[in-house]
Amino acid sequence: MKPIRCVVVGAGATGSLLACFLKRKYGNKLSLQIWDKGRGAGGRMSTSRYSGDSCLSLDLGAQYISATNEYKTKHSSIYDELLENGILSPLTTSVEGMRTLEDTCHFITPGGVSTIPKYFLNQSGCSPSFNMNLNAVNIKENSLTACAEKKEDGAQNDKIQLDADIIVITMPIPQLLNLKGDISSCLDPLRQKLGDVSYSSRYALGLFYENSTELDRVDWVSRYVQDNPCLRFISFDSKKREKDSEGGLSLIAHASVPFSIKHLEENMKDIEKVMLDYLHKEIPNLPKADKTKVIRWRYSQVSKPFEGAPGHVVISKSPLIICAGDGFSHSNFDGCVDSAFSVIDTLKMHFPIN
User: Fold this and answer.
1) Are 87 and 13 in contact (CB under 8 A)?
2) CA 322 to CA 166: how far, in whole Å?
3) Domains in the chain and their CATH numbers?
4) pLDDT tens per residue across span 246-294
5) How far apart are CA 5 and CA 134, in angstroms?
6) Strands, E assignment, 62-193
């Protein structure tokens, strides 16, 4: 019997978890391909390095993982695995101004938050294809064809087509709604509900310092900022992850949602300058960084999920097209776990494991 051909679109938290679960459930009975439009794994669980050979890094997206006791119990197998393998460790430094429930545990990722999706991708045994921008899905008889443009720096985009029995799409819902081909008519009955899903937007500014002497005197590690027109969160990322300051220091600043939405289409260099100006107000003796990086998270966190938060929706039963991700659950790591588990439950009904 031929393996089931499955394409997972997205190598962020949901896509990487799903790839791992698929491997563990189906093994060689399933042929897996993973596509992601980015240059590396992680999505909003993104870690940037000072340079290719440097151990100095910072998290541009998710800063820590928070789990209520309910979810820590519900997803205990996932948390135990990540803790046992050193991917997660308890957050031991204080975060000033953090609003949290008493029954919530907080974790950091010693190697950077991107180590979470990379771990699960490694467990899947499948190497993702990056720079793959899915633009259409077509249906022919009982199979699907995923169509993408492969973007390479300085080269003409290659058009890629891949036949599959199952396609699971984990991209943000606004991007999902822009897909062409036969999938467009499959989405039509749900367009209003999908269009009701909303996301916040946020800018993040990262600063790298090879020498951290001047900043070592700052007496806090992470803090939520109050009464700042631009900034909402600042963290000495390397200190948060308890890295030796002799290797340098990394600092991350997140803009507030209102500021980010107001200036969403502005030039990134202008945004960097504004954020740096406001950062100097919070850290008056902030020296010039050896390297900076600014990123715009157009779809940062889900502020309103799909109605009922089902974890996923099936938009075509035969052949099978599933849309998943935190837009169908809730916007944190546990929401991604919930979404991935829900997809597996549906796949087991369509493709029972003997």
Assistant:
1) no
2) 8
3) 4-63+112-198+307-350 (3.50.50.60), 201-300 (3.90.660.10)
4) 778 999 999 999 999 999 999 999 999 999 999 999 999 899 999 999 9
5) 17
6) 65-68, 89-90, 95-96, 104-108, 132-140, 143-150, 158-164, 166-169
